[in-house]
Request: fold
Amino acid sequence: MKKILKSIMIFAGIVLLLSACEDFTKLTAPPVNTGTADFSRFVVIGNSLTAGYQSGSLFESAQKYSYGNLIAKQVGTTFEQPIVSDPGFGSRLEIKSLDPFTLVNNPIMGTPQNLNYPLPYNNLGVPGALLYDVLNATSSTTCASYVFGGVPNPMFDLILRNSDTTATPLSQFQQAAALNPTMVILWIGNNDVLGFATSGGTSPSAPTDVNVFEGLYNATAGAIASLGADVVVANIPNVSSIPFFTTVGPQIAMGVPWYQLAALGVPGLFYQEHGNVGPSQTFADSLTLLTGGVLVTLKGSSYASLIGQPTGKFYRDFGFPALPPGIDTTQAFGVHPLNPWPDALILDPGEITTVQTATVQFNDIISSAAETYGFGLADMFSFFNQIRMNDFTGGTVFDGITFTTFYVVGGLFSLDGVHPTNQGYAIVANEFIKVFNSKFGANIPLIDVSAIPGSLNFTGKVRFENGFAQFPKGAFDHLFF
Amino acid sequence: MRRLIVTLMLMLGLGTTSIFAGGFQINEHGARAMALGGAFTAVVNDASAVYWNAAGLGFLEGSTNFILGTAMIAPKSSFRGVSPSVDAYYMENQVFYPSHFFITQKFSDVISAGVGLSTPFGLGTKWDEDWVGKYLAVETELRTFSAPLVLTFTFGEQFAISVGGSYSWADVLITQKSPLTPFAGDAFVHLEGDDMVAFGYNAGILWRPSDVFSVGASFHSEVSYEFEGTATATGPSQVSSQLPQGDITASLTTPMNIQGGIAVRVVDQLRLSADFQWVAWSSYDTLAVDFKDPNIDDIASPRLYKDSYIIRFGAEFNWNDDISLLGGVYYDKNPVDPQYVNPSLPDTDRLGFSFGVDANLFENFGLTASYLFIRGDQLTVTNSKETYTPGGSPFNGTYNSSAHILSFSLYYTIN
Reply:
């Protein structure tokens, strides 16, 4: 018996000894060469594009893929963000059905996850921020949308967290300065033109004045330059390269029987030109709609199915107290001059010119400020224009996946048609990394875009009419850019 | 004594539903052979000879021999990557119980026969549902069962040959995830199939010119399985019509094995043995799953296994009349080109160390207990053809694997 016990002991001892052999050699990841760039205190300042906003909401599973966070992971630095649990802050758009294509707003609100983080966040992107706000806004009621339009933007309270401190309220810039940053990305100015564009040129009725923009941008750039950090700025993409403006017009061109309507004397879609709220003789024929001569916004998708019907749905949905003088909703919507397609749902050729002129002027201001202060420049304008051009020759391939700017199917833009998907943000992050690599002699590896998960969320039931996507009433009301 | 064996058989019989193992080929067909590092084709001194080399049946003591046992395999694997990242992922712990049972009977001085049941091939790997390689493998299980029937012709004291056939059956389960980008979330794909009827054949030869020296060889044919089954996929209802579902067929050919060995009794108490096993893995070139629905793309993933070999050494020391100490070591060459290594079977070159005790407990009744530790060589893949993203990014990284195996066999001889 003793012998057997002894054998068992020896046996157990050898098993233990061999278990130790399971261990394997240590591996270390190759160090990232950041060149002369120092990412030890990395801050990004901007709007929704910087916040990592997607599908009309700021939510955790998307914030993880904000370009700032992706870059921080790539260079291995800490990066705190104002995380909001899914489905986030701002009734997220979700897909009820793919065929027919139908969206809904998720009515559930997420909760902030790290309000008590003791320092300013590294991600100081505030959805809805205008250029004015970087230096001036400290709360929902000191931001440009409230000061100039009376509309508070609660995102400032969520991200800047000034209300619960007795200290002096700090702006985006001041919070960045408090972090004593070594590297700053500034991507601002998009909303100074997008607010005009997404409202069909109605609210505000013009982009930010170019002289005002120039003064504000130079002041902001100068302030950031004074921090002594390395800085990279990005410019403003063209609105006609994002699906919010490029999706519905071609659908109307293809989906409405214009050929039959022509026989009845209808030349095209009657629409209100800039500033007009009454009847209109102005029209866009199907070719103009198809080729982007006018840009129907994504908000118009829900009304496109009503073309040809006597309806005043737009005026009810948009809260008009009474019909504007001359409008006759017993006439066929969109194909009769007395019930034209509303100005708020379309950019007419003049408005398109306004938007494009402003974009070019703003980008010139951004470029010359970058040159003045020695900032790196990520040329998002040219980058997205190139991707848009590639749409018509099969798309653009990133890491084995073909992307286009087409709504939903293109993979680049989230359901709001303005903000990128997870993969879209990874592509944006890579553009910044390319700037770091060339400007600072760095060799930061690009993000594998194909390893980034998808981010368009599915939900329950279905509503669909006449082949046009149906958006819930007010689906885009909470859209902060 | 017979009753005990029957009881144990029934107990293990209930367990046969969970017979499967880590590693694709399972060479655990008896605790004694395992303890000797598998250097057993020239030894074959228990009823597991039905598998190892049935030519030895005529030389067994007694007229009828039984062996019944099971192994407990606890494989471990890790993956660190995807390069340049070195994040570590660990395969989930599972224990597998491939069991074995053989009976031999001498009908005359010349003719003997044997039947049995064991699991010559199988694998079982399970990774976390959300791990980095989830589009390559989540859970993979393959079980094969083989029931050999062998006939042995013994010519005098020195020479014997055997021929036989085997009836085999197998089932397979493959689950993995499938990306839905640009949409959030994944689809979960589950493939299941079986083939209840497959046949193989085998042969053996043994020459024992003297009491101190023997040499033997055995042959096991390849076995072709045609699995039939179903694929199911779960995901958001909005994309359900796009997911691969329906009846499937898949084929798998397990490789031919040729093993030869010698055994030498160097001193009275000590016998050394050495074997060389050739495994014709090149039969396994593609893992192909065909959907009967022509609208669904078939899955074909190249494996391109190469023929491989195992070198085995064993030693048996007779402590006294009742107790023997056993030890062994082997080297198992990885049949998979590193560029095709897949986490469903993280295969690398392996070194096995084994030892065991053989105890004659009562007259004609004995027990063998053995332990085997397998260490897989650390394998760093830098040119993987396995892709883990929808864009086709290579699954480069570092694999480590090891396994602990305990095995017990009860044997009984009727004179």
Observations:
- The longest helix of chain B spans residues 2-15.
- The domain at 2-414 of chain B is CATH 2.40.160.60 (Porin).
- The first strand of chain B starts at residue 64 and ends at 81.
